[in-house]
Amino acid sequence: MVVGKLYMLDLSPPARAVLLVEKALGIELEHIIVDLFKSEQNSAEYKQLNPQHTVPCYVDEDGTIISDSHAIMAYLVGKYGKNDSLYPKDLAKRAVVDQRLHFESGNVFPTLRVMVFPMWTGGEKCPTPKQIETLNTQYDFLNKFLSGKPWMAGNTVTIADFSLISSISSLLHMVPIDSKYTDLLAWVKRCEQLPYYEANGKGARAFKEFVKPFLIQ
Ligand code: GSF
Predict the structure, then answer these.
(1) Which atom of ligand 1 is nearest the CA belonging to 56?
(2) Beta carbon of 54 within 6 Å of any ligand 1 atom
(3) Range of the domain at 190
(4) Spatial separation of the C-alpha atoms in residues 34 and 37, rounded to whole Å
């Protein structure tokens, strides 16, 4: 049974994070493609749903409208999760997940956007030395967040992993992860082995092809 509509595009990392939650929860969402290359996100109808005109945006069966992947993931787990393991209710555990989500939202994704937006709108090449430096600093933080643990917030997979793998599996095609970040590299492999990983994998491969012509070799 379809429980809501997800406005999305496979190329978009935050949209893919929501696709991972959908599969992990075993729910079914209607996928409505918003073609950013045709500027469909700027239509009056879409801006009515999401004035920020970004994907993903979610419309629940009860009419609730939510934009921003992090908010959508938390909502879906709270409403449709059989338990809270993907987004714990325990305050201390939740705070760690939230910190990782904010790191994705405030640090990692803006780094991706700064590289992709000029490429997409003006054909600019990337990554610049500064972008490489910024991203390596973020890889270093993520490696430290893991510090030997299997998942970003400890021993259990959470929406923080879905959020971060969606952007990291895209960014690593622009700035490969250095072999010294062993925990981060092992985490990427661990995510790829999740039974529902293809929900992100398909779009991550498309993303790799999309950026290829714009990479500074
Ligand atoms: C980012 C959404 C976003 O910028 C989230 O949902 O987690 N923090 C938000 N989406 C981009 C596509 S992409 O780069 O994934 C988007 O929809 N851009 C179109 C626009 O007009 O800004």
Answers:
(1) 6
(2) yes
(3) 91-214
(4) 9
